[in-house]
Amino acid sequence: MSRQTGKGSHRRKEAALERKATQRHQFIGEAETERAEAEFRKHERLESEESAETIREMARELEKAAGLRTDGAMGPEIPFRIPRSIEEGKRLIREAPEAMREKARERLEKLPEPARKVIDLAGTLAGLAMVPVRLGYGIARDLLRVPMEMFRLLRQREV
Question: 53-67 pLDDT, tens per residue?
Fold first, then answer.
């Protein structure tokens, strides 16, 4: 079977001629409307970019006036920023408890002495309230240990 040669080059030549050819509307002079529309779109795009920049500037001014942080932190309550990678997230998780404790210490130092005493007393009472819960959990665990062990032994004998 013979191979047909030259068809691909013929198509490429036609495509090149089409690209270089003068478009019909340019030839007969109808390009002004398209040029005017393109200019209008260009001005629209420039205006939207200017308004977007104005909005960004206003947002920066409002954040500055509100005292928001610029390092990506969520605010003064959360002293860390959103992680950008998994490794950074792991590091923040390791450091977050200490950062939160330090922030709590700073806030406690700012409180008056009577308020600090009330907070200490509330912490002590909460710890005492948890004693029966811890004891009850320990007793329940010990009580359930014997039946669970018996059940395990019975299952082993059946096998």
Answer: 888 888 888 877 776
